[in-house]
């Protein structure tokens, strides 16, 4: 068991980053509002995005560098586009995941109901962990968090299914009104995660290689697959929780992080009993805390690497960017809290619309001359990737034509 756990690393960090807003918020809302009607979207997104996430690991082993280095080899413009898109979204995404974490902390720990205070504490706590422990501490911490998350979520799911009296027909649907379509875009955009997280996966893999000299691609692929399977399982679990507990009740979740957290905990405990509160609260909090800390680690790594590759002389180190991200997120809490809902929608929809861009670039990179023969894509993987690109393009164009 110890040997098995030691093999895991970047794959669980991927799971930690992915299992957040997309699962706790979006999947739960999907189940609450549509029952199991959007299961198709969850499964198809996970299926068609898989190879493009995997390429973050595969390219790093194939080329001995991060996927950002590969972007620069294709074109400097690609790297500049990534830098621009990241600047638009990193502060909003960090603020969004932290505010939900803070709301859950209020429900779990009490102490104070000031959500800004809790958000500030969580950012500072995560910042100190990452500055002191660096990658190795994050790697070890995430193994513990994901284990707690999986166990507590599974217990909550089994309990909710046993206490459920609604008979579901499992008919799959596509929302017809604009509100439903926007939600579907956000759901698909962040399920299991935005595609640019393949860049984070590449950077974490590179860090793992530096620490463990004997690592190999097959072990890394196994690690990634374990993390990916966990994200799918928990995505379906949270969708099931939302459906079993809330579907047909006529209630809707609030856009406010604090109110949403309270609704989530209260809904589950009122339906499953007060005895389940601890499992629900722990599952929800560990979900969001894992996302908060992995995002706070990965975005600065990606931005510092990008700035360094673009030959900018300032802010080209991890410490500068993690400090900038922490301060920028706190500023959003203080001055832009009332606009949080709008900022999150912009970030999620942008993630949805940019998915084809990252899919195409990652595919071009893995099909390029930079890749050694042993890592070249097979015929079936090429078909798989092209199908995924068509899927992502189709839904992006469909969304643009309807909104």
Could you walk me through the main structural features you see in this protein, from its secondary elements to its overall organization?
- This protein is an all-alpha fold and 403 residues long.
- The protein has helices spanning 2-7, 10-18, 21-34, 39-63, 67-74, 76-109, 115-162, 178-189, 197-211, 217-246, 257-272, 277-309, 318-335, 340-366, 379-402.
- It has a single domain (7-402), classed as Amino acid/polyamine transporter I (Up-down Bundle), CATH 1.20.1740.
- It has 15 helices and no strands.
Helix-strand layout with pairing:
Blueprint: H1 2-7, H2 10-18, H3 21-34, H4 39-63, H5 67-74, H6 76-109, H7 115-162, H8 178-189, H9 197-211, H10 217-246, H11 257-272, H12 277-309, H13 318-335, H14 340-366, H15 379-402
Please summarize what this structure is.
By secondary structure, the protein is mainly α. Helices cover 79% and strands 0% of the residues. Helix 4 (39-63) packs antiparallel against helix 10 (217-246).
């Amino acid at each position: 068991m110890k040997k098995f756990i030691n093999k895991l690393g970047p794959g669980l960090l991927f799971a930690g980053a992915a299992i957040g807003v997309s699962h706790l918020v979006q999947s739960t809302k999907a189940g609450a509002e549509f029952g199991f009607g959007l299961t198709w979207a969850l499964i198809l997104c996970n299926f068609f995005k898989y190879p493009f996430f995997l390429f973050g690991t595969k390219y790093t082993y194939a080329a001995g560098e991060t996927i950002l280095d590969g972007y620069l080899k294709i074109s400097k413009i690609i790297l500049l586009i990534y830098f621009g898109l990241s600047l638009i979204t990193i502060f909003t995404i960090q603020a969004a995941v932290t505010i939900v974490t803070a709301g859950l902390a209020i429900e779990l720990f009490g102490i104070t109901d000031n959500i800004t205070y809790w958000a500030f504490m969580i950012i500072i706590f995560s910042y100190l962990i990452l500055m002191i422990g660096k990658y190795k501490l994050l790697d070890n911490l995430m193994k513990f968090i994901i284990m707690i998350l999986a166990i507590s979520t599974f217990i909550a799911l089994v309990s909710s299914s046993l206490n459920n009296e609604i008979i579901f027909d499992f008919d799959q649907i596509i929302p017809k009104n604009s509100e439903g379509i926007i939600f579907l875009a956000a759901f698909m955009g962040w399920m299991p995660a935005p595609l640019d997280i393949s860049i984070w996966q590449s950077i974490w893999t590179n860090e793992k290689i530096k620490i463990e000299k004997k690592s190999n691609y097959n072990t890394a692929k196994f690690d990634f697959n374990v993390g990916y399977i966990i994200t799918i399982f928990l995505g379906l679990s949270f969708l099931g929780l939302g459906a079993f507990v809330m579907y047909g009740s006529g209630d809707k979740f609030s856009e406010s992080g604090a109110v949403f957290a309270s609704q989530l905990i209260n809904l589950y405990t009122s339906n499953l009993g007060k005895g389940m509160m601890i499992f629900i609260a722990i599952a929800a909090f560990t979900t969001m805390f894992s996302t908060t800390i992995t995002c706070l680690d990965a975005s600065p790594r990606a931005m510092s690497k990008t700035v360094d590759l673009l030959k900018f002389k300032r802010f080209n180190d991890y410490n500068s960017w993690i400090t900038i991200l922490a301060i920028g997120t706190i500023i959003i809490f203080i001055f832009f809290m009332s606009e949080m809902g709008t900022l999150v929608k912009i970030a999620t929809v942008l993630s949805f619309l940019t998915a084809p861009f990252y899919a195409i670039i990652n595919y071009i990179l893995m099909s390029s001359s930079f890749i050694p023969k042993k890592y070249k894509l097979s015929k079936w993987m090429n078909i798989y990737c092209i199908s995924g690109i068509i899927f992502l393009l189709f839904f992006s164009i469909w969304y643009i034509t309807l909104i």
